[in-house]
Amino acid sequence: METRWVTVDGVHLQLPEDCTVERLRDALHKPSDAVLIAVTGDLVSVVHEDERPLSEMVAGCADTYYFRRDDEPDRNEILAAAEIEAALADPTTDETTFQRPGIDH
């Protein structure tokens, strides 16, 4: 099984290729209501599917992940993005992907 190094909430760790949000949440002792936000270059993905391997989604290409809860203050401009709230209010697919805030094209 292939693994790669990623950063999750500031911690650098190995992520197995078949890792799911559920497995990652359990391994890091995150609450069940914590949503995974993945950052891939100039894209941000809000992951709505807990049991599908991340490697099957855009989120699987990320090198930085954050767990976010509704009652927490925003830690950075990515977690403060209005698109996250919109994605959580109306998830239509396994993940919602949008352009990273602060990136000009």
Keywords, please?
105 residues; Ubiquitin-like (UB roll); 14% helix; 2 helices; alpha+beta; 31% strand; single chain
> What do we call the CATH topology?
Ubiquitin-like (UB roll)
Tally the beta strands: 6
CATH architecture: Roll
Radius of gyration using CA atoms only: 13 Å
Query: How is the largest sheet built, in terms of strand order?
Result: 2-1-5-3-4-6
Query: Percent range for helical residues?
Result: 10-25%
How do the helices and strands follow one another from N- to C-terminus?
EEHEEEHE
Q: Report on the biggest sheet.
A: 6 strands, mixed
* Termini Cα gap: 36 Å
Gross morphology:
globular
Notes on the protein architecture:
It is a single chain. The chain is of the alpha+beta class and 105 residues long. It has a single domain (3-99), classed as Roll (Ubiquitin-like (UB roll)). It has 2 helices and 6 strands. The chain has helices spanning 21-27, 82-89, and strands spanning 3-8, 11-16, 35-40, 43-47, 64-68, 95-99. The protein is globular, with a radius of gyration of 13 Å. The mean pLDDT is 92.
